[in-house]
Amino acid sequence: MNDPNESPAFSPSQHRAERIAALVPASRAQRLVNLLIDSAICAAAALGGLSVWSAFDPDVLKLLQPAAPDAAWNPTMSLIMLCVQFAYYVPMEGIFGVTLGKLVTSTRVVDEQGRPPSWGQVLGRTLVRQVPFEPITILFGDPARATAWHD
Fold first, then answer.
1. d(CA 93, CA 52)
2. Alpha-carbon separation of residue 30 from 47, 101, 112 (angstroms)
3. Among 1, 59, 115, 132, which has the minimal tally of Cβ within 10 Å of its Cβ?
4. pTM of the complete model
5. Cα–Cα distance for residue pair 82/93, rounded to 1 Å
């Protein structure tokens, strides 16, 4: 009996159309769980790294203070989060085809033919994730496919 959570294994002789037909897009719920887990991991990595760094150099905390007392946006923290997200998503999706969030929901990243994504596709996905409100795009896409811009 086949495990429904196991990712499909395709033999080289299997026809392209059969591979594509076997793909099941992740649901909106799975994508939400992926986002929450992966975001929590990136935030924990950034805060953990900053905590260690500040233990050796307390002046680093001055970089994290907003430029003005009433400023709502801190460009330094945004740059740190950008670097952390690239360091997390690119190797995880590029080498393994999954992130920790995707492991929990038994989903994986594949291209439209069911093959592992290229490095260019992984970089593009990660770059598009930086667009504000990108996660919301999943709510307004095709309900059958539950796609987002980074797809």
1. 27
2. 26, 9, 19
3. 1
4. 0.73
5. 16
